[in-house]
Amino acid sequence: MQRAVRHAIPRAVFRRVLEAIAVALILATICFALVHAIPGDMALRIAVSRLGVENTSPAAVEQIREAEMLSRPLIAQYGDWLRAVATGDIGRSFVSGRPVAEELLGASGYTLRLAAMAWLLSYAFALPLGIAAGLAPNGALDRATALAAAALSSLPTFMIGIALISVFVLSLDWLPPAGYRRTEHLVLPATTLALGLVAPSVRIIRNAVVEVQDATYMTYARIRGFGRIKAFVRHGLRNASIPIVTFAALQFAYLMDGFLIVETLFNYPGIGDAMVKALLARDVPVVMGCALLIGTSYAVISLLADIICMALDPRLVDEGHGSR
């Protein structure tokens, strides 16, 4: 079985590489179309973002239009970008003039920090609550977590963030409101994202535990004299982990959506904030670079989930799929 897993990993890597290329290009194409669909003069927006309102003149706008070749047909601009990407060059920012890779490298470090803290914080609550609720289905804790999860799921991310700012910044003055200068600035945005992740995670973990508890091998373990918790730890934990790992990878999509909102709300200098600012400035290379990064990251995380699931249950190799 372990040998089969080792042989299956290259196939999973190849599949995810193809998926990463396809997803990244589709996202970049959609972003390219959306940026150009925004009403207004793109050269004017770039000039205002680059020079400031007071230094923007018609001559400066025309100079930028010519320098960035914005008068060319859109299909020609898109073709130039594709050819450059094929050589490993994702371009330079229209606003700062810096390579897009440099700008994204700086922003991605902040986003990774935020994502790691939010994900760990969410599972610090979701794992014990979900397992406890699953070990005692329909009990008081199970009903309480179901009610809390439904309430949290109904709240938009920005409302959770505003509520946290109202309590911990405006009322208690315990935490800084925005920006990033020290670790304390991570607390509110990470908690905002974590609360959005906790709600579905608790129910997924609870359902996985309940499903494992009803399995035949668990019944046999209890007949042999194992208690409910000991039987779960020795025989059920590994199998319950598979849907949890799969769902943890899918949560990356939620995090991407959350980054755009949370980083903008808290003025946090990550990928989401960079993408929003680039959209407002019509900085096409940065927007498309963000799309490439997001698409590639999703495929990499999906690949890791596939490998972990195949390691947890090698039978998935014979069934011809990883975490799906």
Describe the fold and architecture.
The radius of gyration is 24 Å and the shape is globular. It has a single domain (2-318), classed as MetI-like fold, CATH 1.10.3720.10. Helices cover 78% and strands 0% of the residues. The chain contains 13 helices and no strands. By secondary structure, the chain is mainly alpha-helical. Helix 10 packs parallel to helix 11. The two termini are 19 Å apart. Mean pLDDT is 81; it is low at 320-324.
Brief overview:
It contains 13 helices and no strands.
Question: Which features does this protein show?
Answer:
324 residues; mainly alpha; 13 helices; globular; disordered C terminus
How helix-rich are the residues, as a percent range?
A: over 70%
SS element count, helices: 13
CATH topology: MetI-like fold
Order of helices and strands: HHHHHHHHHHHHH
Strand content: under 5%
Most strands sheet = none
Shape: globular
SSE diagram, text form:
Elements: H1 2-37, H2 42-51, H3 58-67, H4 74-86, H5 100-135, H6 140-153, H7 157-171, H8 184-213, H9 216-223, H10 228-265, H11 271-281, H12 284-312, H13 315-318
Helix pairs in contact: 1-12, 2-3, 5-6, 5-8, 5-12, 6-8, 7-8, 7-10, 8-10, 9-10, 10-11, 10-12, 11-12
